[in-house]
Design a protein that fits this description.
six-stranded parallel β-sheet, alpha/beta, eight-stranded mixed β-sheet
Length: 424
């Protein structure tokens, strides 16, 4: 009997070193689900580090060994990890570039774009960073598998055309919800092929929850089943630079006021305790830091009510923060993958959505009515919408119990399809 072939793939757009737990969740989920289907598969995750390194990640099924390979978007053209340098090296046969060598040895290149970054709404630099790996894979004539993600929106025809060319050349392209699938079809145009362009679900629905090793006594008490603790995720991307965010995402509502008014309403109208859930945990508390935003909101709460509001530790494992979220009574999030952690755990969830990506994912679970859109609603309307979601939490719980088994089955089928493509 011939020995079983050992397959290998490269993964872009889901690095473990971004401080964004949503991006890390995509990596953990993708790796775990494919390893379950073939535990001999070799995986290289492209990140922001230097050169090639080894990495072990802990998951409930056991430790998984990965290789890490640097791929960065910077002006340091002397670095072999520079994406522009990689593209040039690839055109010239490789030139000993380790990143190109890794791609050449891969059976396929998987690209997930951080779940929602295949768009130009985050700026030219992010768009270049997201599209370069896809173009390199096509340049090297490797099967390009666009994992379930959001496509668009695109404000520029130039960037939309680049995205369309990539989608048309991809071996397989998955959208993570029906709304994004419509955009995927539009990008594919006359070359749309239902066998290649498919609709799936976000891979983070399969992220395992792991109890944190460091679980403070106070946090454990808050998460006890008898405590009705609600969780709120505040996005530092929106909160910390609201003027820029309002312009970039065309917000009508005042996001900072929405957060403060929602917290105030819970404290005045319920006996619930509130737990802030940071999902971007940059150690320097930079401009996108959720912890920085949480600290600012906490300072604005009257002292006599502040003892009912707490902030979860800045866990760096998406599996650990999912475990925390899974113990909540109700959850409201702005970061997409914070809400996916809640939805996939069966926690009644609402969202403050600054882009179309959120509604489609929530509709996957029958929860579309629980998305508040600050680009079409004013401040008070957003708060009222979120409060209505809170009041409908029992119905939401019933709907989640109905939808989640279907989502889990769809997730399993799509990962098997991805594995089939790699084997072919």
């Amino acid at each position: 009997m011939a020995p079983q072939k050992k397959y290998s793939f490269s993964l872009f757009g889901a690095a473990l070193d971004t401080n964004n737990l949503g991006v890390s969740a995509l990596c953990y989920s993708t790796v775990q689900q494919l390893k379950r289907l073939d535990n001999k598969i070799e995986i290289t995750v492209f990140d922001h580090g230097r050169g090639r390194r080894d990495k072990s990640i802990k998951l409930p099924d056991g430790d998984i060994q990965l290789s890490l390979q640097g791929a960065v978007n910077s002006r340091r053209y002397y670095r072999p990890e520079n994406l522009w340098v990689m593209r040039v090296a690839g055109l010239l046969g490789g030139l000993g570039n380790s990143g190109i060598a890794t791609i050449k040895k891969s059976d396929a290149v998987l690209d997930i774009s951080g779940g929602d970054s295949f768009s130009d709404i985050y700026g030219k630099k992010r768009f270049y960073h997201v599209t370069s790996p896809k173009l390199i894979a096509l340049q090297q004539k490797k099967p390009l598998i666009l994992m379930p993600q959001t496509y668009g929106p695109f404000a520029s025809d130039k960037y939309r055309n680049i995205a369309a060319d990539i989608v048309k050349q991809a071996t397989v392209a998955w959208a993570r919800d029906e709304r994004s699938y419509t955009v995927l079809k539009e990008l594919a145009g006359d070359e749309f092929d239902p066998k290649r362009h498919q609709c799936g679900v976000d891979v983070a629905f399969g992220l395992p929850a792991i109890k944190p090793k460091n679980l403070p006594v106070k946090l454990s008490e808050l998460l006890h089943v008898d405590n009705q603790t609600v969780g709120i995720n505040i996005s530092g991307l929106i909160y910390n630079n609201q003027k820029n965010a309002r312009s970039q995402f065309n917000l009508i509502a005042d996001y900072n006021s929405v957060v403060n008014k929602l917290v105030t309403r819970f404290l005045e109208s319920t006996d619930c305790k509130i737990l802030f859930i940071p999902h971007v945990v940059s150690p320097d508390h930079g401009e996108e830091s959720d912890i920085r935003a949480c600290n600012d909101v906490l300072k604005r709460i009257p002292e006599n009510l502040r003892n009912r509001v707490h902030t979860a530790p800045g866990y760096t494992s998406p599996c650990e923060i999912k475990w925390v979220i899974s113990r909540l009574y109700w959850f409201c999030g702005t970061r997409m993958h914070a809400t996916i952690a809640a939805l996939s755990s069966g926690v009644p969830t609402s969202a403050i959505s600054y882009s179309p990506k959120t509604l489609g994912v929530f509709e996957t679970c029958g929860q579309g009515e629980h998305v508040a859109d600050p680009t079409s609603l004013n401040t008070d309307e957003v708060v009222d919408h979120l409060w209505a979601s809170w009041e409908k939490r029992n119905k939401a719980l019933e709907q989640l119990n109905e939808f989640l088994p279907k989502v889990t089955e769809q997730l399993d089928n799509q990962m098997r399809s991805v594995m089939d493509v790699i084997r072919r």
